[in-house]
Amino acid sequence: MIPHVIEENIIFKTNLKSDTGNIKADPVQMEQIIMNLVVNARDAMKTGGKLTIETADAFFNKEYIDHHMTVKTGSYVMLAISDNGEGMDQETQEHIFEPFFTTKEEKGTGLGLSTVYGIVKQSGGNIWVYSEPGKGTTFKIYFPRVEEGVVSKKKGEKVIESVKGTETVLVIEDESAVRNMMSLVLRYNGYTVFEASNGTEALSIFHQHKDQIGLLLTDVIMPGMNGRELADQITAINPNVKVLYSSGYSDNIIVHHGILEEGINFLQKPFAPSLLLGMVRNVLDKK
pLDDT of 189-209, one tens digit each? Predict the structure, then answer.
């Protein structure tokens, strides 16, 4: 999905070692880490550049941890995501993992990197950033290596239902890269997708296909009509349409500001493709 999230003027390369060890982590959270860092890298390369993802084994000895007090000795697996974009000064680097800190004036929520930091620490790992203004940025994440193999599903364990579908989804998102990614993921998994960049455009599409559309997947904060106002108009026409909201702001923040009420179907951006598919399937299957 990454080539569809980044701009066409960004070259995407990988250097993935095939014999790296195993780590113990949640696959959806790993996707979340990668998507967050890729979006950050994309935004740092406004005029184009190069994005690189690497993996490798690493070992931290006593000499290393003497200079990195939070790290334990042992074997690790490294994930590095690098760009040659605008880079960051030292002051910015000291705050990037803080909740709500952002350098993106309009689009940023300041939640992406704090989410990455929380997932890495929850998995027993460490994350460092290497950056200089005008010379790009590299995030290096080290996960403890484990010796056990991949855990297989036990006999009798509940099998996860397929996240594929044949329903029709109307996707409303004003950021084209995010909209393209969501639409691509859904189409690849069997859904029919209509796309709109704002509420007015979405209403026009809905009136043309109101008997087909089963799910409204809408950003909450958009120029003009917001996602809640759009959903209210559409469900007034067809109460059977399901609604899934998405936003870079957390659901608690949006509820606090009175835009949405508690208990709604909500997907926080940026999200992994598997999480998007799971949420779409869950909302459509609700009685």
Answer: 999 999 999 999 999 999 999
